[in-house]
Amino acid sequence: MDSLYFLIPIAVIFVTIAVKLFFWAVNSGQYDDLETEGRRILFDDDEPRERPSDKDGQGD
Questions:
Q1: Domain for residue 39, yes or no?
Q2: Are 60 and 53 in contact (CB under 8 A)?
Q3: 8, 22, 24, 52 — which has fewest CB within 10 A?
Q4: How many Å apart are CA 35 and CA 38, to the nearest integer?
């Protein structure tokens, strides 16, 4: 019974922090575009990216 006096306030603090973090993420736009990242992983770019050394004309 004595442990409940310690554990309940800690649980309330954790829930409060989790709710504040969730609302911060929603307000800062973390959940605005959920589909782009999933599509980006599935579809490759049409053109391969150039390495920085290829732009100078001096290969490895």
A1: no
A2: yes
A3: 52
A4: 5
Considering just the CA atoms, what is the radius of gyration of the chain in Å? 24
Q: Would you say the pTM of this structure is higher than 0.85? A: no
In whole angstroms, give the CA distance from residue 17 to residue 9: 12
Spatial distance between the Cα atoms of 40 and 26, rounded to a whole number of angstroms? 22
H or E stretch including 10?
helix 2-27
Identity of residue 37:
E
pLDDT tens readout for residues 4-35: 999 999 999 999 999 999 999 999 988 888 78
| Separation between Cα atoms, residue 40 and residue 45, nearest integer Å | 9
Please indicate, yes or no, if residue 15 is contained in any of the structural domains: yes
